[in-house]
Amino acid sequence: MLEIHLDRLRWNYLSLQKRLKKGTDCAAVVKADAYGLGAAPVVTELYKANCRHFYVAHASEGIVVRDALNSLAPHGEKGKPGGKSGDAQIYVLHGPRGVPAEEFSQAGLIPVLNTPQDIEHWAGFARKTEKRQPALLHFDTGMNRLGLAALPDKTMLQQLDIRYVMSHLACADEPDHPKNGEQLNAFKRLTAALGLPCRLSLANSAGIFLGADYHFDQARPGCALYGINPATTGQNPMQGVVTLKTRVLQTRDAGKGETVGYGASYKVSIPSKLATISAGYADGILRSFAKSGAVFIHGQRCPVVGRVSMDLLVVDVTKTVCSVNDWAEIVGEHQSVDAVAAAAGTIGYEILTALGHRYKRAYLGQEE
Ligand SMILES: *Cc1c(COP(=O)(O)O)cnc(C)c1O
User: Fold this and answer.
1) Which of 99, 240, 264, 296 is at a distance of 20 to 30 A from 313, taking alpha carbons?
2) Could you read off the pLDDT of 249-285 as tens digits, one per residue?
3) Mean pLDDT of the residues in the chain
4) Which of 93, 146, 353 gets mutated to test ligand 1 (max ligand atoms within 8 A of its CB)?
5) Residue 76 burial by CB count (10 A; 0-12/13-18/19+): exposed, middle or buried?
6) Is ligand 1 within 6 A of the CB of residue 167?
7) Residues 294-345: pLDDT tens digits?
8) Atom of ligand 1 nearest to the CA of 112
């Protein structure tokens, strides 16, 4: 059972918005199906919390977001299809090429232009439609991933309606990293040299916590909305949004010298009680979680023994009362997404986006 607490998602969004300096808009990054939580319910809830800017990676994801927003009932008229969400902006990080330009534009998507070729392509569409088509401009300021490396052709830009100029931070989760200040300065330098009156966006979740200098006109948090700690150190200021629990399918006693699971990699050293849990690597429980991972049954920590298989894992319940059909909590009040990630040697982002689609899902705490 995968429970997604929409009330906590809203709380996280509002608390991030509150942290931003006055005049800064808080967007929401909802790429990869809202980090695995479900784009449609997440976007719907964020829209109700007054979020009006959404980022996806692919155009196809943007169409899902637009459909979700279009089916929103306008306030005060419950149950009636709205189309009232036309005030929401959807930005496509991977640029304008996922679908034909006409389709892109008709779905109300705004491309992030990352290359001179992107700019040419979108300016061509603007000339064809005799309309200054909306777009975002992305400068690379040191990440060397996506974004323009140099100032673009200005006559081409003048054919477009540049809504924001953005860049992306590489090390925002390490507040003392010198790269943060370097990127901030590069961003200021580039946007000044561009010489266009443009709104600016730099900060991801962790960037928000670097302070007001990084906020500009719009912030783009993703992970913090979904309860991941945006800083690598210190207490998590966000609320956990996900509860993941699954049933005990079987319990058994194992004697000294017996082995557990594939490869017989774990050998029982004292007479033990084992429980087999209905979750495996096909459900996003990484194989590397076996090394030091655990689940919680009746609030007791039960370590994983043996390898994680596709659909199952086995835990040691010698020290707890455990019966068939009991709940085993993987993520929840006893164990955060970040803790699961640490045990698996990865980051919370990878745990959430790997959750898969076999769990029964429940969306709780929706605003009426
Ligand atoms: C994914 C992404 C974000 C969100 O980052 P978080 O660390 O999840 O807050 C912001 N901006 C860009 C360009 C991204 O690709």
Assistant:
1) 240
2) 999 999 999 999 999 999 999 999 999 999 999 999 9
3) 95
4) 93
5) exposed
6) no
7) 999 999 999 999 999 999 999 999 999 999 999 999 999 999 999 999 999 9
8) 13
Contact 24, 16 (CB under 8 A): no
| Residue 192 confidence class, pLDDT cut points 50, 70, 90 | very high
Confidence of residue 74 (pLDDT cuts 50, 70, 90): low
Question: What's the pLDDT score for residue 79?
Answer: 43
Kindly tell me the burial class for residue 22, based on how many C-beta atoms sit within 10 Å of its own C-beta (0-12, 13-18, 19 or more): exposed
Q: Is 267 a catalytic residue?
A: no
Name 21's Cβ contacts closer than 8 Å, sequence gap at least 6. 212, 215
**pLDDT classification of 234: cutoffs 50, 70, 90:** confident
Predicted local confidence at residue 78, as pLDDT:
47
Question: Nearest to residue 59, comparing CAs of 29, 32, 28, 99?
Answer: 99
| pLDDT of residue 80 exceeding 70 | no
Active-site pick, 262, 267, 291, 319: 262
**CA contacts within 13 A on the Cβ side of 203:** 30
Question: Cα angle at 183 between 179 and 189, to 5 degrees?
Answer: 145
Q: Which amino acid is at 4?
A: I
Instruction: Please return the burial class of 365, using the count of CB atoms within 10 Å of its CB with bins 0-12, 13-18 and 19+.
Output: middle
CA of 33 to the centre of ligand 1 (A): 14
Q: Which residue from 254, 160, 163, 175 is spatially nearest to 210, judged by alpha carbons?
A: 175
Known catalytic membership, residue 188: no
Measured distance CA(295)–CA(264) in Å, rounded: 21
Amino acid at 22: K
DSSP letter at 148 equals B
Please report the beta strands in the chain, taking only residues with DSSP state E, as ranges in sequence order. 2-5, 25-26, 28-29, 53-56, 89-92, 109-113, 134-138, 161-166, 199-201, 218-219, 242-254, 259-260, 266-267, 272-277, 294-297, 300-305, 313-316, 327-331, 361-364
